Amino acid sequence: MLWSDPENEPPQEMRDMQAMMRRAGILLALAMIIAMFVVGLH
Fold first, then answer.
1. Each residue of 9-40: pLDDT tens digit?
2. What global pTM score does this model have?
3. Where would you find the membrane-spanning parts of this chain (predicted)?
4. CB burial string 8-38: b at 16+ within 10 A, e below
5. Around Cβ 41, how many Cβ atoms within 10 Å?
6. How far apart are alpha carbons 11 and 25 in whole angstroms?
7. Cα separation of the two ends of the chain
């Protein structure tokens, strides 16, 4: 499977996993920011 293949469409479960990882990364970043605020307030 080369990158130059014309039909380089990832399977549905891989796209779902990528979307879930992206969402998890955003949630983790938000949680870190909130934790920084909480630690800064105390």
1. 778 899 999 999 999 999 999 999 999 999 99
2. 0.60
3. 24-41
4. eeeeeeeeeeeeeeeeeeeeeeeeeeeeeee
5. 6
6. 21
7. 54
